[in-house]
Amino acid sequence: MQIEAAQKYILSKLEQELAPNLYYHGIHHTLDVVNVALQIAEEENVKDSEFLALLKTAATYHDSGFLMAYSGHEAEGCGIVRDVLPGFGYSQGHIEIICGMIMSTKVPQSAATDLEKILCDADLDYLGRDDFKSIGETLYAELSARSLIGNRQDWNQLQIRFLESHQYHTKRSRLLREPQKQAHLNELRETV
């Protein structure tokens, strides 16, 4: 597997071709998810180099489907993975594991394997971080630009429902992020 080359390929495409109004789902989000996924893997004691390579690849490609479509971007991302990664030496088995991880991030998340759980938690890590509000503002701007959300009150209600239904999957995220996520939820409840 030519991991670095595969990563460089898609990051270049994301940087050059993503719609400019993807204020949340931009390359900055992808890079954040890659970093957090590897951090969670380390804290969850994932040491297998092949698993780490697959996780890093899935994290890098997890939102690549936004190059093709907004709705259903996970399936589009799997299409990209199936088209591109064989050229970088990934086997069919590797590709299926990567697609499983990507599809598990579709909301509501459905993580079954340890790698899927790590990627899902990395994707929504910000829900329990101090930058929750600023990152949330980028998602609000993105949804507003696409006329997918109404006013601020609608946004706050959506965030409340989302935070209430969301669950972290890894021990690390439950310990490190869940308390702050609950604090954000309580703050939002006070606004409605």
TrEMBL record:
Q: Name one Pfam family in it.
A: HD
Annotated CDD domains: HDc
A single MF term (Gene Ontology): hydrolase activity
Keywords, alphabetical: Hydrolase
The HD domain sits at 27-123
Q: Report what the protein is called.
A: Phosphohydrolase
Q: Which organism is it from?
A: Dyadobacter luteus
